[in-house]
Amino acid sequence: GAVVSQHPSWVICKSGTSVKIECRSLDFQATTMFWYRQFPKQSLMLMATSNEGSKATYEQGVEKDKFLINHASLTLSTLTVTSAHPEDSSFYICSGGLRGLTDTQYFGPGTRLTVL
Amino acid sequence: AQKVTQAQTEISVVEKEDVTLDCVYETRDTTYYLFWYKQPPSGELVFLIRRNSFDEQNEISGRYSWNFQKSTSSFNFTITASQVVDSAVYFCALSEVTGNQFYFGTGTSLTVIP
């Protein structure tokens, strides 16, 4: 199957700093990328959907100014958590898919963010 | 309303026992896809199966089997002769053609006791 990588796999930062997480589709072109957040012992919650070259669509309750998503190319999407706070500590997972094909979504390994 | 319901939050079984994880879904689409993923402690989602709504055949893959019943909107997952390595959180997910996102259930945490 197609491979999606995430970098970094884990990050610890101080409160108030910004953190960037990269999501890359290694062997396919992901026209759509999804960002999920997963708190301990909870399910994955979709944060936003981004199509290459256009602005991301955020789910209700997700602050777009805090979670900046850029999907500038067909193989790279980035999520920047701005002015991170301890409550942003979570497991962030991205996935790549092909626009219009809902059965093809390939998940990255996740990034564990800890904000001190 | 929850589109995917996994009523079992936690299950513990003794090694070699069979275990069934339940998944009930809700959708108005006639075409949709159902998935099962395994999430071990490392966190990475491991794809197990995808089933489209037109294929109601049950599937067996080694110790894993899936029972898809459209009449009851269920897509249950059975592990036969469970092993300690099966310990993980298992997620059922639904993808609708009319949208473009996955709906995940709340997950079932399976612990296999040696």
Topology:
The complex is a heterodimer of chains A (116) and B (114).
Chain A: E1 4-7, E2 10-13, E3 19-25, E4 32-38, E5 45-51, E6 57-58, E7 67-73, E8 76-81, E9 90-98, E10 101-107, E11 111-115
Parallel strand pairs in A: 2-11
Antiparallel strand pairs in A: 1-3, 3-8, 4-5, 4-9, 5-6, 7-8, 9-10, 9-11
Chain B: E1 4-5, E2 10-14, E3 19-21, E4 24-25, E5 32-39, E6 46-52, E7 59-61, E8 64-69, E9 74-79, E10 88-96, E11 102-104, E12 108-113
Parallel strand pairs in B: 2-12
Antiparallel strand pairs in B: 1-4, 3-9, 5-6, 5-10, 7-8, 8-9, 10-11, 10-12
In short:
Chain A has 116 residues and is an all-beta fold.
Features:
heterodimer, A: 116 residues, mainly beta, 7-stranded mixed beta sheet, 0% helix, globular, B: 114 residues, 6-stranded mixed beta sheet
Describe the structure.
The complex is a heterodimer of chains A (116) and B (114). By secondary structure, chain A is mostly beta strands. Chain A has no helices and eleven strands. Chain A has strands spanning 4-7, 10-13, 19-25, 32-38, 45-51, 57-58, 67-73, 76-81, 90-98, 101-107, 111-115. In chain A, the strands form two sheets. In chain A, strands 2, 4, 5, 6, 9, 10 and 11 form a seven-stranded mixed β-sheet that branches. Chain A has a four-stranded antiparallel β-sheet with strand order 1-3-8-7, with no helix packed on it. In chain A, strand 7 (67-73) and strand 8 (76-81) form a beta hairpin. The radius of gyration of chain A is 13 Å and the shape is globular. Chain B is an all-beta fold and 114 residues long. Helices cover 0% and strands 53% of the residues of chain B. Chain B is built from no helices and twelve strands. In chain B, strand 7 (59-61) and strand 8 (64-69) form a beta hairpin. Chain A binds chain B through residues 1, 32, 34, 41-44, 46, 49, 91, 93, 95, 97, 99-100, 102-103, 105, 107, 109-110, 112, and chain B through 33, 37, 42-45, 47, 50, 52, 91, 95-97, 99-102, 104-107, 109.
